Amino acid sequence: MRSHVGQYPGLRIWAALFFVFLYAPMVVLISYSFNTNKLAMIWGGFSVRWYEKLFTTGGIADAAFNSLVVAVIATTVAVVIAIAAALVLVRQRPFGGAGISTALISMPLIVPEIVTAVATLMFFVIAKAAIGFDFGIGNIVLAHIVFCIPFAFMPIRARLSDMDGTMEQAARDLYATPWQAFRYVTLPILMPGVIAGAMLSFVISLDDFIITQMISGPGTTTLPVYIYSMIRNGITPEVNAASTILIAASTVLVTIYWYVSRPNAK
Amino acid sequence: MKTLLLALVAATALSGAAQAEGQLNIYNWVEYTSPEMLAKFEKETGIKVTVDTYDTNETLLAKLKAGGTGYDVVVPSQHFVEILIKEGLLQETGAGGMSTYANVDQRWQKPVWDPEAKYCAPWQWGTASIAYRKDLYGKEMTSLKEFFEPEEALKGKVQVFKSPDEVYNLANIYLNKPFCSENAEDAKAVQGLFEAQKPAVVTYNSENQNDNLANGTSIVANNWNGFTMRARMDSKTDIAYAFPKEGVVGWFDSACVPAGAQNADNAKKFLEFIMKPENIALQSNYARYSNAIVGADKFLDKDLASAPEMNVPEGVPVKFGQACSPEAQKLIDKVWTKLLQ
Amino acid sequence: MQRTQISAWLGVAPAWFVIGIFGVLPMLIMLGISFMVADPYGGVEPAYSHEAYIQFLFERDLDDSLIFNPIYLNIVLRSVGLAAITTALCLIVGLPVAYFIARQPESRRDVLILLITIPFWTNLLIRTYAWILILTRNGVVDARLQSVGFEAGTFDLLYTNTAVLIGLVYSYLPFMVLPLYASLEKMDFRLAEAASDLYANRWRVAWEVILPLAKPGIVAGCLLVFVPSIGAFIAPDLLGGGKRMMLGSLIYFQFATARNWPFGAAVSILLMAFVMLALLVYARVNKGQGLPAGGH
């Protein structure tokens, strides 16, 4: 029975169904990007007009670029902050500030988006009037870092808990510097949590609309802000076309990664 | 921290929203500013235009109220023009004294929301009423009664706007009540009407009405005129726009200049520019809504000029929503929250 | 203070700095707003009032006496209930998947994790529209059924509770699966082997070995799904038909259409207090230190 340990009937099928569920809307979304009809949801025939429009008018492409820049920077900073906090909050015991720190980090998760949006807008306006604090798109990045932190922190903490520090201790005993111990021992152990946290932060940042719209200024329209502004005049398949390009590009990157990392697979 | 600072520096450099000479920052709905018209404006004046977008009048108000937005031209609807003026969030442009103001149709000159035309230039206007599937409904829709007190066959086939703004006023028109009433009895009457209609409603939604009409999820739906025209042309189904005898609700968007705009002179040039018939026609052809400029008709696309949705029949009143007093607004909110509790 | 304590504070300092300035300060502004008077055209007037908190539970009769008014409470309870169901469904769907991925060869794991997130690089509104196309009458599924002889509208789930749940579960699945995966991936499968030698029943192994090991991930995942989904309104509105208001729409409505910022702020503060309290109770029950310290 050894070969069956930890294996459960139907697990593979369950996972397959899961991915079908996940990608069914993607298939619909992609096929409707070739819809000639201006009404996003009524099929009018095949065409690539929305792709042509995408490449000629640019508005949506600029917005997508802004979104990516914000998401990448916000995710990177949020993950670094989350790693530092998680290492302390899981490893350092006893730590007097653990409870209050965890509460603080969970806070952005709990606040309804519109409240954060209005409050942050007022904050930035006051800060600008008082000390001339205004970073343009940097304001958006800062706000995104705040609400990305809990999404980066939770998976990293889940990864760390129940793991003791014996490996690092061993490394330190072998005269590794704290940095070396972190870089070559702790970080590799943390990696799945870091990847999960980074992915969630990235997704959350890329999708944020209400907060971003409130604090955005001239030239800083992001993709979700652009898309929601379309509602009044009808969302067109151009949005599907932009999404399709994003999906295609990321799939290509994943495939490349897959081939590059293959030799390591056993 | 180094990373954070670097990120901020990089991000600030990227934003580069120039406030320099020859710049104009427009804040408007998406697909609501004709790129052709902007290109013409840039060519004529040498001013560089950027366009950013928002989703609702409420967002615009909140942002202008907070201050320091950096936008030079905004495009609020009529009741928000009133609010923005009251709140001191717009600056006087002397639109009424501009050389091109004479082109504005008599009926739209010095409107109630900007009685001396001191602030804004007309952008686009339209109506909100009801669109319906003529083939499935089987007859012409001539009264708001058919929408608010639908016959049995329409049960589960009526779609209503998601936000009370326009449908509340449609109800007022039907019940012959004044807009923005502060009388609780009026609100009760409207509430009774909404509650009685609710069992027939399939969804409260302002986004998918065209799709729902086209695939038969709804037969009767709140809709705007331009949106309905698009549905009729694109869906290849028999969708019609009703002009009920009691009247329809109108909306009117204007181009205005926020107080403290950095490029106010350029903004004024823009206001002057859009009141020329050949320019605003480019905008109408793009966004497919009516404009208020005499003489623009001859530059319009044929299908647009002759569209039934665009031409209000004789005898059907068009009533424009106003900015309600806090008491009146509270009653509206109460009715709506109770309806959807 | 001991050196370890100082280094601990240094470790959480960046989080304190960023969230403190850009998260807590704005929230204090919001707390202040909830105790002010609404400005008729949005914003607030600087005058004290706790009317907003009273409005949450009572309405004023004509003679100014207070009458209990459950409509806002109804909306809160509905939203919390829906969030709880969503969380449970995400867990049921996501746990086997996370376990499956954790048992894959290393290089395949990363790819599968990426594959889970790619659909969410598209916009929430557009994903929801895609679901509408799948669920609606004459939609992708219904049209296929018609082509093999079924009547139009045989498959029409749009504007039903099922549609809302599909939309919500879909939106939040990665927030469950990824933390679960992060904690399951470290699992030493020799433990399971040893356990199966002892128990020889793989379902008991699942219950007594795997589930406890997954607990930190379950806690993290449930938090990341439950809390944000209380405020969710795009899926309920677009897929459910918007005939019943959700907490997220109520708060949005107060800030936007109703222009009653103090009430919107008060509802948000109450919501935050409720969630914080729930987390504290959870932490007490689990004898954790402070807020949910998963797995202890």
Structure explained in plain terms:
- The complex is a heterotrimer of chains A (266), B (341) and C (296).
- Chain A is an all-alpha fold and 266 residues long.
- Chain A has one domain: MetI-like fold (Orthogonal Bundle), CATH 1.10.3720.
- In chain A, 73% of the residues lie in helices and 0% in strands.
- Chain A has helices spanning 11-31, 49-57, 59-91, 98-110, 113-131, 137-160, 166-173, 178-207, 210-215, 223-229, 237-261.
- Chain A is globular and about 70 Å long.
- Chain A starts with 10 loop residues before the first helix and ends in a 5-residue tail after the last helix.
- By secondary structure, chain B is α/β, with parallel strands linked by helices.
- Chain B folds into 2 domains: 21-125 and 251-308, D-Maltodextrin-Binding Protein, domain 2, CATH 3.40.190; 127-250 and 313-339, Periplasmic binding protein-like II (D-Maltodextrin-Binding Protein, domain 2), CATH 3.40.190.10.
- In chain B, strands 4, 5, 6, 7, 8, 9 and 10 form a 7-stranded mixed beta sheet that branches.
- Chain B contains 14 helices and 10 strands.
- Chain C is built from 12 helices and 4 strands; from the N terminus they run αββαββαααααααααα.
- The longest helix of chain C is centred in the first third of the chain and has 32 residues, at 3-34.
- Helices cover 70% and strands 3% of the residues of chain C.
- Chain C starts with a helix and ends in an 11-residue tail after the last helix.
- The chains are: A mainly alpha (266), B alpha/beta (341), C mainly alpha (296).
- Chains A and B meet through α3, α5, α6 and α10 of A and α1, β2, α3, α9 and α10 of B.
